[in-house]
Amino acid sequence: MKQSPLLEFKSDAFAISPGEDEATNPGIFGKALAEWLADELSARGHAAGEVIAEDFGWCVPVESKPHALYVVCASSDEQADSWRVFAFAEGGLIGRVFGKDTRDEDVARIYGLIKAAITARVDVRDLSEERA
Questions:
Q1: Residue 126 counted as domain residue
Q2: How far apart are CA 62 and CA 25, in angstroms?
Q3: Contacts of 1 (CB under 8 A, 6+ apart)
Q4: Which residues, in sequence order, are bridge partners of residue 128?
């Protein structure tokens, strides 16, 4: 698995739906953030699929071949305004075998797009980046 740095920030812009964390682990939110990022990625020319609930957060699948590429969104510290976002790629065995593994570039490209989208919002504060 290839992973981007972790973006952490605060924003009141992403409402939590009642019972949203029933699809994830208790206290893990981020569906509205994931849906917004899916729209942002699609608007920037990267086809994003339907948001998927996982135990650890909400995933946005991003069209990518020959590997799977995702953006993960999750609340931080069970707070309604603290968020964590990162991108990761998995798979790509064929590309690695033939020396054409593009996972690093694809993760970096998607990470750049999500960082730019988040940074552009006026309702985001305390943005920090933590290297994986």
A1: no
A2: 23
A3: 88, 89, 90
A4: 8
Q: Tell me if 4 sits within 8 A of 132, measured CB to CB.
A: yes
* Cβ–Cβ < 8 Å for 99, 78: no
Digit-coded pLDDT (tens) for 42-59: 999 999 999 999 999 999
- What total number of domains does the chain contain? 1
Residues 37-96: tens digit of each pLDDT: 999 999 999 999 999 999 999 999 999 888 899 999 999 876 779 999 999 998 755 555
Q: Is 14 exposed, middle or buried (0-12, 13-18, 19+ CB in 10 A)?
A: buried
Residue 46: which domain range?
2-15+24-121
